[in-house]
């Protein structure tokens, strides 16, 4: 194994040590997934481009550092024990084109605003995490798409092919994995600058609201920000030191779908000797690739990152126990997160037996609600959408179930954006179907817009503070 040259890491000495990471070429078991059944993978059009891309990815620097990943695991352990709350949000599918400073900053600002609402409302530390800087690969229900009698391969995310409906664009181009890496790097760079360079300073809590459209949620946020201002002024007069408020921790995450990419970015951490998938801090396994004896579960069982698994309405308690045995055999707090996405009509019935089984087994996982993916419908005018009321109802159901069982509802996972899009129906300043024609921008699933995201944060803050 060749050691990579060490580059300067941003903050701690742990991160610095972790920057020296080897390519994991012959680490035992890391390639076991290649002999297992695997779903949702591309059929690359040019093997030579694939070989060259994987080779380059495996020597490029890590995008995140193992020391940061370990910090996240500790934070998630606190959330699993009811001492923190995870807020995870971002696009269904990031695109290369939309990785601009404006779009990235409005998404980060929205997540910071939601986090402030939650922290202030619930008096709990909030772990801030983007579905960002790597959310480029999408599972699809069909391999093909037909338009006006023409059938082409389905869009699988910018890391695989283009959204444009032409044979050239829809071909599976392995060279896109390199562009995904570089786009992730520039996105992360901007996120790091925003969250550590003074922009995320809590004293600027009003600034984060600037530039967004005035609406009911906007006004409610402004009034909360005034309360925070008053509290800060009071503390400042008491001589409190606000240096600590200048920086926030912000973590990246994405669905670990494209295993060629994830494997190529896996490195051996020089401090611990363990493999870390350095494409992101947190990785999750989707509802469609969580079969126990398939490739995705096997590969992710072997890296040290905290791992999430999406659990849909057909999940049984035994499925959950088997996933725990495979992904978290040592029952390590913070290692495993279950992201449930049952649907508003099903959560109150389907979630309790799973939670009960897991609790009875003694395992401690982090329970997170994804109120988006079980509530997708098609609008009358043909758009993939979600009703904001269903999203809110699934969140309420999640809180009710955990309240009844005495377990902790530890996080929220949402598809959202800071932009003023019209993709989900309803909200305090309601979006209707007609608005889709002008303001529907997602290339995959519908996202909450800025106002709907804040509104949801107020609901969650209310539910958390009641506990
Ligand atoms: C997603 O998070 O975009 C997704 C595809 O979710 P799920 O695996 O829950 O369907
Ligand atoms: Mn989605």
From TrEMBL:
<comment type="pathway">
    <text>Metabolic intermediate biosynthesis; chorismate biosynthesis; chorismate from D-erythrose 4-phosphate and phosphoenolpyruvate: step 1/7.</text>
</comment>
<dbReference type="Pfam" id="PF01474">
    <property type="entry name" value="DAHP_synth_2"/>
</dbReference>
<keyword id="KW-0464">Manganese</keyword>
<dbReference type="GO" id="GO:0009423">
    <property type="term" value="P:chorismate biosynthetic process"/>
</dbReference>
<keyword id="KW-0028">Amino-acid biosynthesis</keyword>
<dbReference type="InterPro" id="IPR013785">
    <property type="entry name" value="Aldolase_TIM"/>
</dbReference>
<feature type="binding site">
    <location>
        <position position="92"/>
    </location>
    <ligand>
        <name>Mn(2+)</name>
    </ligand>
</feature>
<dbReference type="GO" id="GO:0009073">
    <property type="term" value="P:aromatic amino acid family biosynthetic process"/>
</dbReference>
<protein>
    <recommendedName>
        <fullName>Phospho-2-dehydro-3-deoxyheptonate aldolase</fullName>
        <ecNumber>2.5.1.54</ecNumber>
    </recommendedName>
</protein>
<dbReference type="GO" id="GO:0008652">
    <property type="term" value="P:amino acid biosynthetic process"/>
</dbReference>
<feature type="binding site">
    <location>
        <position position="310"/>
    </location>
    <ligand>
        <name>phosphoenolpyruvate</name>
    </ligand>
</feature>
<feature type="binding site">
    <location>
        <position position="341"/>
    </location>
    <ligand>
        <name>phosphoenolpyruvate</name>
    </ligand>
</feature>
<keyword id="KW-0808">Transferase</keyword>
<feature type="binding site">
    <location>
        <position position="373"/>
    </location>
    <ligand>
        <name>Mn(2+)</name>
    </ligand>
</feature>
<feature type="binding site">
    <location>
        <position position="445"/>
    </location>
    <ligand>
        <name>Mn(2+)</name>
    </ligand>
</feature>
<keyword id="KW-0104">Cadmium</keyword>
<feature type="binding site">
    <location>
        <position position="415"/>
    </location>
    <ligand>
        <name>Mn(2+)</name>
    </ligand>
</feature>
<feature type="binding site">
    <location>
        <position position="131"/>
    </location>
    <ligand>
        <name>phosphoenolpyruvate</name>
    </ligand>
</feature>
<feature type="binding site">
    <location>
        <begin position="287"/>
        <end position="288"/>
    </location>
    <ligand>
        <name>phosphoenolpyruvate</name>
    </ligand>
</feature>
<dbReference type="GO" id="GO:0003849">
    <property type="term" value="F:3-deoxy-7-phosphoheptulonate synthase activity"/>
</dbReference>
<comment type="similarity">
    <text>Belongs to the class-II DAHP synthase family.</text>
</comment>
<keyword id="KW-0170">Cobalt</keyword>
<dbReference type="InterPro" id="IPR002480">
    <property type="entry name" value="DAHP_synth_2"/>
</dbReference>
<keyword id="KW-0057">Aromatic amino acid biosynthesis</keyword>
């Amino acid at each position: 194994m060749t050691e990579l040259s060490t580059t300067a890491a941003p903050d701690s000495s742990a991160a610095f040590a972790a920057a020296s990471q080897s390519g994991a070429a012959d680490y035992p078991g890391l390639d076991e997934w290649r002999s297992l059944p695997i779903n949702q993978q591309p059929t690359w059009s040019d093997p030579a481009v694939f070989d060259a891309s994987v080779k380059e990815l495996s020597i490029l620097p890590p995008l995140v550092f193992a020391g940061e990943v370990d910090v996240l695991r500790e934070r998630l352990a606190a959330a699993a024990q009811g001492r923190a709350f995870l807020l995870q949000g971002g696009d269904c599918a990031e695109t290369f084109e939309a990785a601009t400073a404006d779009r990235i900053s409005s998404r980060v600002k929205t997540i910071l605003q939601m986090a402030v609402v939650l922290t202030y409302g619930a008096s709990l530390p909030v772990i801030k995490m983007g579905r960002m800087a790597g959310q480029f690969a999408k599972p699809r229900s069909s391999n093909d798409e037909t338009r006006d009698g023409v059938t082409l391969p389905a869009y699988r995310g910018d890391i695989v092919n283009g959204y444009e409906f032409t044979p050239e664009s829809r071909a599976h181009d392995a060279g896109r994995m390199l562009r995904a890496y570089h786009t992730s790097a520039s996105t992360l760079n901007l996120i790091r600058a925003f969250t550590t360079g003074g922009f995320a300073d809590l004293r600027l809590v009003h600034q984060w609201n600037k530039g967004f459209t005035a609406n009911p949620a906007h006004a409610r946020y402004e009034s909360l920000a005034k309360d925070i201002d008053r509290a800060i002024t009071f503390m400042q007069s008491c001589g409190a030191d606000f240096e600590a408020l200048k920086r926030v921790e912000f973590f990246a995450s994405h669905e670990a779908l494209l295993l060629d990419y994830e494997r190529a970015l896996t490195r051996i951490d020089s401090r611990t000797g363990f493999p870390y998938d350095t494409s992101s801090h947190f990785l999750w396994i989707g509802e469609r690739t969580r079969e126990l004896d398939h490739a995705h579960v096997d590969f992710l069982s072997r890296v040290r990152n905290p791992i999430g698994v999406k659990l849909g309405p057909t999940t049984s308690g035994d499925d959950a126990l088997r996933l725990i045995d495979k992904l978290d055999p040592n029952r390590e707090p913070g290692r495993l997160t279950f992201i449930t996405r049952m649907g508003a009509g099903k959560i109150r019935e389907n979630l309790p037996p799973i939670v009960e089984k897991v609790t009875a087994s003694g395992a401690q996982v982090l329970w997170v609600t994804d109120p988006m993916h079980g509530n997708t419908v098609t609008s009358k005018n043909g758009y993939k959408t979600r009703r904001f009321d269903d999203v809110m109802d699934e969140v309420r159901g999640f809180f009710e179930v955990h309240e009844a069982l005495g377990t902790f509802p530890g996080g929220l996972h949402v598809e959202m954006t800071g932009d003023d899009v019209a993709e989900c129906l309803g909200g305090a300043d309601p979006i209707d179907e007609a608005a889709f024609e002008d303001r529907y921008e997602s290339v995959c699933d519908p996202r909450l817009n800025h106002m709907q995201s804040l509104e949801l944060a107020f609901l969650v803050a209310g539910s958390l503070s009641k506990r």
